[in-house]
Queue: 2 jobs
Job 1
Amino acid sequence: MHGLEREVERNARPAGVDECGAPREGETRTLDIEGFASLLGITPESVPARCREIIHAADFDYEVLGGRARDAIVLGVLQALEGDLSVAGPARIEAWENGWGDVLARFEASGGRPEELWPHYLRPERRIVRLDGEYVRPKAGTFEADFVRVMQAWFSETFLRDVRSVYEFGCGPGHNLVAFAQSRPDRSYTGLDWATASQKVLAKVSSTLDLDIAGRRFDMLHPDTSCAVAPDAGIVTFGALEQLGTSFGPMLDYLRAANPAMCVHLEPVHELYDPESLFDFVAARYAEKRGYLRGYLSELRALEQRGQVEILHVKKHLGSLYHDGWVSLAWRPRRGS
Ligand SMILES: C[S@@+](CC[C@H](N)C(=O)[O-])C[C@H]1O[C@@H](n2cnc3c(N)ncnc32)[C@H](O)[C@@H]1O
């Protein structure tokens, strides 16, 4: 448990009724099919069967943290903002090489267990998360990873349903591609990342698990325009454009020129923070300090105004303790524009 979470634990009070109608401190809730439908911005009937299976099998109970516990969290976030935080960008490549090198060693040592591919930031731990304007403490350590599993299935069954090939940029150890390939082996998959350790993991994964996943080195800050994607491909990113800060222009140009059937992202979207809300204010400052994605949605909206792209979906879902990293965004180039 982190220092901040220990502090929250000390300050948490037993459940009590809030006469103002605010969430009761310590109240337990669950994300069920209806909860997920509202989180995804769809009707309960449109939640795909595969998502339902994951939701039913997982433990999505959580406790809402209010009062002094919430104060302690905000204080901790403000204190973190005053400290040294690593900033996304070229200086971080070594950290990614090391991280995915560790994942490869773990995957090999386990004899090829797909669960070992999950990155450190999604491994089971009872982290406090941001959900629907609240800080909440999940009952299970797998809450965030199970949420990502639901999103993988949702992307696969909806936005990517009809594509024949999927390219994930900034794919890291490839756990999203493995989930896609296991549920839809009829498509081909390519994982691209600037860290060479990612390609080593993918080579091991495709041979061990017998999945059609290829790895390719690719720097999103300096996209190689000779790296073509198949016609009518689906392009996905999960927490990868995040790393580009405001330097996403060349990558967006590359994506548009690639002319995919669909682009779908699970990324932080800075424009969705409400500057009038303390809850959003601290998260926005955190994202700025880490150098996370900023301006991408505004640029897509400007392109849409000019008739060059079509935005199909934007919805904020969930965040870690510090910021909202999980916003889904789907768009496609307008053909012939
Ligand atoms: C937060 S991780 C996300 C990994 C994976 N998509 C996931 O869902 O866990 C960010 C990934 O982006 C990659 N990355 C960061 N900057 C990049 C760049 N300029 N070009 C290509 N990959 C980059 C990192 O190597 C890392 O694998």
Job 2
Amino acid sequence: MVKITVLSENTSGSIGLIGEWGLSMVVECSGKKILFDTGMHGQMVANADFLGIDLRSLDALVLSHGHCDHTGGMRAFLGRRGRLPVYAHPDLFALHYVSLPRERYAGVPFCQKELESLGADFLFGREPREIASGLWVSGEVPRGTPFETGDSRLICFRNASKEPDPLADDMSLYCTTEDGLVIILGCAHAGLVNITRHARQVTGVERVYGIIGGTHLGAVSDAQREATLDFLKQLNLQFLAANHCTGLPVIARLATLFGSSFHFAPAGTCYTLPIGEES
Ligand SMILES: [Fe+2]
Ligand SMILES: [Fe+2]
């Protein structure tokens, strides 16, 4: 069983909570409480207070990737929590940029030293790591699906030149439950098909019960989106809560396609899986 609470998302699901572009979720599994991402500006701290979630009780932070809408709340969060393990990919601090509507830096808005001085004990790794019984940090996801070419607006600077951003640091969480896998996404820059295949390989569990988080399907090519939707339909998902960078038009489409299996997941929503929606 896994309990997932959305602390911060582009939209708010309740009076008293504030939405901001970004994503932050608390994942409770096998007696551990893991924070997955921190949102953009630290609104997750006030939202946690409102929801009655004590951030000082968290065991670890996992960062899905270096984009600022997932790491920008780290200063506020660490200020509240203090020292804790932070799982991330070694490319977390890569020079991530976005080219539209104007070229700008979109990576971690703090330097590593500042975050360490605030209490971040970075545990960098490319390999899958089981951080609680049945809960895996994916590590680097192999890119084997030809149509998953990603978001062409995302670029990075390497060796003083600009190139498409491989976002090798993109990681997800894989959780095994008695009804199958629950895949928890940050932005799914590695591609939803690649991530699902990797999750099956890492955990040895074939059946996918549910998916929650940012799918990035709103910002990829039409060909990638349609092929990914075909793939999702074949999974026979019992639970799909696509939010954040999925974008509202694709969210609306998924809600139609998946009917009662689809859930909106703004800030404040909480799911206990595989049992069902709690609030
Ligand atoms: Fe994002
Ligand atoms: Fe991202």
